[in-house]
Amino acid sequence: MKNTINKQLSKPVYIQLYEQIRNDITDRILKYGEKLPSKRLTGEELGISVISVEHAYSLLLDEGYIRSSERSGYFVCYSESDVYKHPSSSLPPHRRFTGVQLENNFPFSVYAKTMRRVISEYGDEILQKCNNSGHIEFKKAICDYLARSRGIEVDVNRIVIGSGAEYLYGIIIQMLGRDRIYATEKPSYEKIEAVYRANGVKCELLELGTEGINSVALSATDASVLHITPYRSYPSGITASASKRREYLNWASGDKYIIEDDFESEFSVMSKPEETLFSMSKNDNVIYLNTFSKTVSPAVRIGYMILPEKLIDVFERRVGFYSCSVPVFEQLVLANFISNGDFERHINRVRRKKRRG
What we know:
By secondary structure, the protein is of the alpha/beta class. It contains 13 helices and 9 strands. Helix 4 packs across helix 12 (328-339) and helix 5 (136-149) packs parallel to helix 12. The longest helix has 15 residues, at 108-122. Mean pLDDT is 87; it is low at 82-102.
């Protein structure tokens, strides 16, 4: 490895090292099974602490790029040629879904205080109609939050606000067309398939293995749209491995699209959130979708999606005439949550609680 660290950058040194090793692995500079240098040796070569190297290696371990072997060191375990492995009756502990529902709801006192502040500060603006794709202030807050927390940097014109995930699924179908075949995970959240069938499109169910969708099923499907929940699929609790995420992106060539349903990923207990397919894609063909029903409350039926650049005009032409389905008041309340830091403080509290649990 020929890595370099720039201590003048604002980016932490362990993140710089993590990104360089990850890129070496995905670019096949570091091959499957190859051993990484020891933490001590890497630290000495780069002039950084062993702790920084350990943080970088821990992120790579969390995301499935490397594995550790006691007394032997760290080895690359990522391979784009990984094939489907038959499901096991005993999933690895970090991939098991317990079914336990944490009390993640946003503190009501903070919610009520923010609502009063929005009414006081905005007055009758909360009764006015906003842009069809959503209120500009809310969309800016989402853009800033995604840049800070997920490394996703997009313009506000790519954000579309809607009243929950199911509403946005329907908008995506109208945008991409009903003549396509839509594929999703089996098993998956039951309403995903229900929305597709209610909209009159063919929906193909692809069996899940322990790392994600069965590779054989994925390569054989006639679908041109793949709807996935890579962070933690419900009800199986399976998280797509790094190799599987690359496989999904490799599948999406030509006129194919991926719908990345990133539900609940904010509450990952990893020290760094899972990298999104949206940020990994080089083909501008991933539609990123998330909601606030888990991070704030199930009663908050508000979601958003990020469109690929090449779909902005398609969206405007085919469905851009729809009025935004979320009241301005609710958008401004969430915008305030995000902008003043209450939203991220809440997420961090829940993540700390899950780590302790």
